[in-house]
Every structure is written in structure tokens, then in C-alpha cells.
Design goal:
heterodimer; A: about 160 residues; mainly alpha; about 0% strand; B: about 80 residues; alpha+beta; two-stranded antiparallel ribbon; 3 helices; about 60% helix
């Protein structure tokens, strides 16, 4: 049971802070996007401080979860490119959302273009096949690891292009 | 569609709603909740995610949970120090 008497009013928002226009839905503002990027960046820092071999999944999960809900709103590409611009980065041609978010939240001296591409392809495979309630790390490990997921995406794409 | 929230965020959003509704008598509960979520999201206390049904939901951010834990601990300590 939370004792409200002792808690600071920060948590229940004094009315003077709510001068926003009246709306029925919550708009996804640039400030909210910045906060999302900050959390992904924090996950990056956390994964770098982690000595375990699977520490990278902390970061990949944060990237995956953000792009997953953007995708559910069909706005992933547009928001990923906006994220790059908020970081003063120019989107590459055909840069897909996972790659863009990895580029603007990780350390480029540690994540080169090849690693970025590998991670983003593994995440693309996960978003197309992962059951919603299965944690990302378990899914990727169940499928044989990051490299295997990349290979599976390649197979999946060649099957699709073969059908066309 | 109902605004989906996790238990912690729902609790604090309801408290905030009770607190501000007298200042906005013409707004519906939905409109008040929209204002509250927007503010929580703006300052990094709430974040969107997909729930088990694959629908957009809000949850308390790690930062908010950590600040709550600190505030609850401080409140307990203050209570213990009370003569």
C-alpha cells in the first residue's frame, strides 16, 4: 500500500504543469521520442558495463521494443529517420528502422557497419517470427543465435523473392 | 479505445486524475488521462510498449520506478524518525 501523504507531489502532477491542449489521443511528441532514445542509449551503456557475453541483449531488446511499437503504428521508418535527425545525423538511403536506431544510440567505435547490419537483420527476423510474449534473448538463442537469425532472414527473403 | 497502462502507472495516473479534475471541470476522464500520459511521457516517466495482445500500452519507465522506490524509502524513513 503506497502512503501518499509522504510522497512528493512530483508523482501526481500538480495542475500547473498540464497546460497542453485538450486531445482524445496522446500525441507522440519529439520530447517523448528523445526520452525513448535516451532509454535505448542507457541500455547501450548498461550492456557495455555488463561482463556477461549475452549483455548485448539488454541493448538489442531496448531497440527491438521501441521499433516494435512504432511498427504497430506503421510509423517505424518515419520515426527512425526523425530520431536520426534529432541526433543531427542524416538518414542513409534505404536505411531501415533497426539500423537507424542502432546507429544513433550505440558507439560507432564499437559497432561498425557490419555489426550494425547483422544486428538489424537479426531483429528484423525476430519482428517477423517472434511470439509476442517470448523475450528477445530467449527467441534468438532458441533459433541458434544472432548469426543463425541473420541466415534465416536471408532464407526467408530469398523464398519470398522466389515466389514473385 | 481504452488507454492501457501497467498497474504502477495506472495507480499514479488515477491519483493525478483525482488531483487535477477540479481544475478542469469540463474535461472527460479520457481527456484528463491523455493530458496526464502526455506529461508523464514528456518527462520520461512513462513509455509506450506492446502488450501481450500486440496493442499499444503505457508502462512506468525504469526511471519512474527507481524514483518511486527512492521516495517510498524516504517516506518510510521519515515515518520511522517521527517521535
Amino acid at each position: 500500500m503506497t502512503n501518499l501523504e509522504g510522497m512528493h507531489s512530483y508523482f501526481w502532477l500538480p495542475p500547473y504543469r498540464l497546460k497542453t491542449p485538450v486531445q482524445e489521443d496522446v500525441p507522440y511528441t519529439s520530447q517523448a521520442l528523445r526520452q525513448d532514445l535516451l532509454r535505448v542509449r542507457n541500455a547501450w551503456e548498461e550492456s557495455q558495463g555488463c561482463r556477461r557475453r549475452d549483455g548485448v541483449y539488454v541493448y538489442l531488446t531496448a531497440v527491438f521494443n521501441l521499433v516494435a511499437w512504432w511498427s504497430a503504428e506503421n510509423c517505424a521508418l518515419e520515426r527512425a529517420h526523425k530520431a536520426l535527425r534529432l541526433r543531427n545525423m542524416i538518414p542513409f538511403d534505404d536505411e531501415e528502422p533497426f539500423a537507424a536506431i542502432i546507429r544513433c544510440t550505440s558507439d560507432p567505435s564499437k559497432v561498425d557497419r557490419r555489426t550494425r547490419s547483422k544486428w538489424s537483420r537479426a531483429l528484423r527476423y525476430a519482428i517477423s517470427c517472434k511470439p509476442i510474449d517470448e523475450p528477445l534473448d530467449q527467441f534468438i538463442q532458441r533459433k541458434g543465435g544472432i548469426n543463425k537469425c541473420v541466415a534465416r532472414l536471408t532464407q526467408q527473403m530469398s523464398r519470398r523473392s522466389g515466389k514473385m | 479505445m481504452k488507454l492501457q497502462m501497467d498497474k504502477t502507472l495506472r495507480f499514479w495516473a488515477d491519483v493525478a486524475c483525482e488531483h487535477i479534475k477540479r481544475h478542469h471541470p469540463n474535461l472527460t476522464k479520457r481527456q484528463l488521462m491523455t493530458k496526464i500520459l502526455r506529461e508523464y511521457e514528456r518527462r520520461g516517466d512513462a513509455m509506450r510498449c506492446l502488450n501481450r495482445e500486440g496493442k499499444i500500452a503505457w508502462k512506468a519507465s525504469p526511471r519512474f520506478l527507481s524514483m518511486l522506490a527512492d521516495a517510498e524509502r524516504d517516506a518510510r524513513d521519515d515515518l520511522a524518525d517521527w517521535p
